[in-house]
Specification:
This protein has four domains: about 160 residues, MoaB/Mog-like domain (Molybdenum Cofactor Biosythetic Enzyme, Chain A, 3-Layer(aba) Sandwich); about 60 residues, Molybdopterin biosynthesis moea protein, domain 2; about 90 residues, Molybdopterin biosynthesis moeA protein, domain 3 (Beta Complex); about 70 residues, Beta Barrel (Beta-clip), CATH 2.40.340. By secondary structure, the chain is α/β, with parallel strands linked by helices. The strands form eight sheets. It has a six-stranded mixed β-sheet, with no helix packed on it. A six-stranded mixed β-sheet has the order 16-13-17-21-20-18, with helices on both faces. Strands 22-25-24-26-28 form a five-stranded mixed β-barrel. α1 packs parallel to α6, α3 runs parallel beside α6 and α4 crosses α5. The chain contains seven helices and 28 strands. The chain is about 20% helix and about 30% strand. The two termini are about 30 Å apart. A hairpin with a 2-residue loop joins β20 and β21. The protein is elongated, with a radius of gyration of 31 Å. Bound molecules: adenosine monophosphate (AMP) and magnesium ion. The site of magnesium ion (MG) has 5 residues, from loops. Its cofactor is Mg(2+).
Length: about 400
C-alpha cells in the first residue's frame, strides 16, 4: 500500500498532456490555451470618451467660477461609432457620448452633469484639467504586446478579451475521452423496481457528472455483468476508444471481482493497487499503450473520493491545466473527529466562514456508502494516517470539493 503523495506523483509522472486543436471562440470556454495571444491592435484603437459629456479645450475653463462661468458654443454631437471630421476650436464644445472618438483639437471631456446646457451653448463654473474622462489609444494594450499567456484557462473574461483582440479561432489543448465501466450484478437502473438483493446504480451517474464537471468528454458503456469474459472484452474495447478508462466496483478480492484478472490478461502495466486513503483504499492505477486505467472501488463515497484525489489531477494534466496540488487552506475544527489510524482520512465536512476564518462541522457518517453525507458536505479535512483523534480548536488542511 503506497501513500497518497506517492500515488499522486506516480499518476502525474505517467500522465501526458494531450495535443492541441483549434476551436471556435465560444467552444474554447474552460479549455487551456495552447498558444500565446498577442494583441493585433491598440486597445482602445482611438482616444475615446469615458463619459457622456462635452469634448472641449481645458484651457477654455481656466479661471472660471460661479461668478465668471466659461461659455462655450456647442458645435455638434458625436455618438459612439461616429467620427467627427471637423477640428474643435477655442470657445467651442462638441457633445460626446461614452465610447465616441475624441474630436481633433479637444483635450478633455467634461461630464454632462457638470455643465449647464442652453440651446446652443453650455456654461462651466469649475476649471477642468487636461485628459479627464478620456480612455487613451492603446491604454489597455498596445499592438504586438502579450495579452494572454499559453497555459491559461479560458474563462468568460478571456472569451470577451479574445473577441476584443480579434481572435475567433483559438488553439487549445484537447480534452481526454473517458470511458466508464460500471460493474455489479446487484445493480438496477434508476427507474427499475427495487427487488430483494438489488440496489440502484449510482456510481455511473456520479462518475458521468464528475467527468462532465471537469469538462472532459465521457462515454459510459453502461452496467457490465460480473462475467470475466464480458469484463475483459469491455476493457479491451474501452482502451481502443478512450484516453482514460475508469471502472467502478469488481476490483477487490471477492469471488466475483474480475477487474484485476482482466487487467493481468491484457498485460497492462499496473503501477499500484492500493493507496493509504480512506475512503478508497482498493484503487488501481495502470497504463496500457499510453492510456490510463483507474479501477475505483464500488462504494459510492469511495468512488467520488478516489476520483477527486486521483483521476481528477490526471484529467486536468491531460487538458493542460498545470495544477500540482488542490487549493488547501487552514480549517479550524468546531468538533472532535475520531478516525482509524493507518490511512489518510478524507473526512467530508461542512466548512463555514466566520470572522474571516474557516471552521469545519460534521456532515454525517463517513461510511463509504454514505452519499447523503457528501451531499451535506462542501469540503474535506485531511487527517493524516498516524492520527486517530483531532480535537475541536485544532487546525487542519481543508479543501472545498467539486472544484
Ligand atoms: P465491489 O467493489 O464491487 O465489491 O462493490 C462494493 C460495494 O459498492 C458493494 O456494496 C456494491 O453493491 C456497491 N456498489 C458497486 N457498484 C455500485 C454502483 N454502481 N452503484 C451503487 N453501489 C455500487
Ligand atoms: Mg461488485
Amino acid at each position: 500500500m503506497i501513500t497518497v503523495e506517492e500515488a499522486l506523483s506516480t499518476i502525474i509522472a505517467e500522465t501526458e498532456v494531450l495535443g492541441t486543436e483549434t476551436l471556435n471562440l465560444i467552444s474554447s470556454l474552460n479549455r487551456v490555451l495552447a498558444e500565446d495571444i498577442y494583441s493585433k491592435d491598440n486597445l482602445p484603437p482611438f482616444d475615446k470618451s469615458a463619459m457622456d459629456g462635452y469634448a472641449i479645450k481645458s484651457k477654455d475653463t481656466e479661471g472660471c467660477s460661479t461668478e465668471k462661468p466659461a461659455r462655450l458654443k456647442v458645435k455638434g454631437v458625436i455618438k459612439a461609432g461616429d467620427l467627427y471630421e471637423e477640428e474643435l476650436h477655442s470657445k467651442e464644445a462638441i457633445k460626446i457620448m461614452t465610447g465616441a472618438p475624441l474630436p481633433r483639437g479637444a483635450d478633455t471631456v467634461i461630464q454632462v452633469e457638470k455643465v449647464k446646457e442652453f440651446s446652443d451653448e453650455i456654461t462651466i463654473i469649475e476649471p477642468i484639467g487636461r485628459e479627464k474622462n478620456i480612455l487613451k489609444m492603446g491604454e489597455e494594450i498596445r499592438s504586438g504586446e502579450l495579452a494572454i499567456p499559453l497555459g491559461k484557462k479560458i474563462r468568460p473574461a478571456e472569451i470577451g478579451l479574445l473577441a476584443s483582440l480579434g481572435y475567433s479561432k483559438i488553439k487549445v489543448h484537447k480534452i481526454p475521452k473517458i470511458i466508464l465501466l460500471t460493474t455489479g450484478d446487484e445493480l438496477i437502473d434508476i427507474e427499475e423496481k427495487l427487488t430483494p438483493g438489488k440496489i440502484r446504480n449510482c456510481n455511473e451517474y456520479s462518475l458521468l457528472a464528475l467527468a462532465k464537471n471537469l469538462g472532459a468528454e465521457v462515454k459510459s458503456y453502461g452496467v457490465i455483468r460480473d462475467d470475466p469474459n464480458l469484463i475483459f472484452e469491455k476493457i479491451e474495447e474501452a482502451f481502443e476508444e478512450g484516453d482514460i478508462v475508469i471502472s467502478s466496483g469488481g476490483a477487490s478480492v471477492g469471488d466475483y471481482d474480475f477487474i484485476h484478472d482482466s487487467l493481468k490478461k491484457l498485460k497492462v502495466d499496473t503501477k499500484f493497487e492500493a493507496v493509504a486513503i480512506k475512503p478508497g483504499k482498493p484503487v488501481t492505477f495502470a497504463k496500457f499503450k499510453n492510456k490510463l486505467y483507474f479501477a475505483l472501488p464500488g462504494n459510492p463515497l469511495s468512488v467520488i473520493n478516489t476520483f477527486e484525489q486521483f483521476v481528477s489531477p490526471a484529467i486536468k494534466k491531460m487538458m493542460g491545466i498545470d495544477e500540482v496540488s488542490a487549493d488547501e487552506f487552514p480549517v479550524i475544527l468546531e468538533e472532535d473527529f475520531k478516525v482509524k489510524k493507518g490511512r489518510d482520512n478524507y473526512v467530508y465536512v461542512d466548512i463555514r466562514k466566520k470572522n474571516g476564518a474557516y471552521y469545519a462541522y460534521k456532515a454525517g457518517s463517513q461510511g463509504s456508502n454514505q452519499l447523503l453525507t457528501i451531499s451535506k458536505a462542501n469540503g474535506i479535512i485531511i487527517i493524516d494516517k498516524d492520527t486517530s483523534i483531532v480535537r475541536a480548536g485544532e487546525i487542519l488542511n481543508g479543501r472545498f470539493i467539486f472544484k
